[in-house]
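User: Could you go from structure to sequence for me? I need the amino acid at each position, not a summary. Structure tokens:
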């Protein structure tokens, strides 16, 4: 117990520092969007970065970037860009394809799943670190793919072969982790999370580590299935709204009746609206990657049972509620952006439903 606390305290301090960093970056991103060009409007002010835009997530504003979880967008993606800049993977290592990186991070995830299944907390923590390395590799393959395709910012190349390969590899990696977690829960169902190192009285209902019964196996399987279905629903909904908002807010041209300048102005209004910001922040905190981060934290701090009890059904309610609100907002945003412009030029009203006020 004492050793576990000594190990946990430094990581808890790092977690607090990262939280403060992410909060600061959110504020900077909000200020950047409110005060500088989001779309290339004629009366806007262009954002100028003091560092290379390859490393700065504030340069290019995209729907996916706004809806991506904090660790991926503000930490792992810039680190992947720095690695590519140092090693020139996207330009010099032509034999390394983004798909090859995707295949490799599946193997890393399998190793992470094996570690997570261990009865040793140290091995489970190693599994968490390995899975985060897998996530970084996932960012690296996306960065390399975008650099070779000359795509700026975080964007999903929906419909491409790489998009489907990346999705399948992500799914396989998560399945590997969940299988390892099932093996751990099935063998340790009755052990008290966080206190399993303390001496325990010999009670007949307490299983020795590694002993599996039908009851413990079914309980573990039920919990893993609930988490798996939730992850699938969250991933499907998150990707759906990235696709819809990306198609609405990042397109260059819609119909002959809507000019580019008018379209860009309306898209910028949506990007700057308080309603849109509330929705994308909610997706930042409960998207597929964020939920995996919460799960990894529960594994690392040996609080799996508390985590399962906390999120067993509540996450379903939260996701379904957010889907309802997002669907409603998107339909209103679509109607607003697609509205035929008036014959007489007029400024977009600041009292519009999608503005900040």
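Assistant: Here is the amino acid at each position, in order:
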């Amino acid at each position: 117990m004492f050793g576990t606390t000594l190990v946990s305290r430094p990581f808890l301090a790092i977690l607090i520092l990262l939280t403060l960093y992410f909060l600061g970056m959110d504020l900077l991103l909000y200020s950047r969007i409110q005060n500088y060009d989001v779309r290339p409007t004629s009366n806007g002010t262009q954002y100028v970065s003091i560092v290379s835009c390859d490393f700065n997530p504030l340069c290019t504003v995209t729907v996916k970037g706004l809806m991506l979880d904090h660790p991926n967008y503000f930490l792992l993606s810039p680190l992947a860009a720095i690695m590519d800049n140092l090693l020139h993977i996207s330009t010099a290592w032509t034999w390394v394809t983004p798909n090859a990186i995707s295949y490799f991070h599946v193997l890393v995830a399998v190793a992470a799943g094996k570690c997570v299944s261990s009865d040793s907390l140290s091995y489970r923590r190693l599994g968490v670190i390995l899975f985060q390395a897998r996530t970084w590799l996932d960012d690296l393959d996306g960065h390399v793919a975008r650099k070779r395709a000359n795509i700026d910012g975080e964007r999903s190349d929906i419909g491409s072969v790489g998009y489907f390969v990346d999705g399948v590899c992500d799914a396989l990696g998560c399945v590997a982790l969940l299988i390892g977690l099932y093996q751990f829960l099935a063998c340790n169902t009755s052990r008290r999370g966080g206190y399993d190192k303390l001496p325990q009285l010999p009670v007949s209902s307490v299983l020795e580590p590694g002993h599996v019964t039908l009851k413990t196996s079914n309980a573990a399987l039920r919990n893993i299935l609930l988490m798996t279905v939730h992850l699938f629903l969250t991933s499907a909904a998150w990707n759906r709204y990235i696709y819809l908002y990306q198609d609405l807010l990042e397109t260059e041209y819609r119909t002959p009746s809507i000019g580019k300048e008018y379209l860009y102005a309306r898209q910028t209004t949506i990007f700057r609206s308080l309603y849109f910001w509330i929705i994308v922040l909610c997706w930042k905190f409960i998207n597929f990657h964020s939920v995996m981060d919460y799960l990894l934290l529960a594994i690392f701090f040996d609080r799996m049972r508390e985590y399962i009890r906390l999120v067993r059904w509540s996450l379903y309610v939260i996701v379904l509620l957010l889907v309802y609100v997002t669907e409603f907002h998107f339909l209103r945003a679509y109607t607003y952006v697609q509205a035929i412009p008036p014959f007489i030029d007029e400024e977009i009203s600041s009292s519009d439903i999608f503005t900040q006020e």
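One structural detail worth keeping in mind: The two ends are 52 Å apart (CA to CA).
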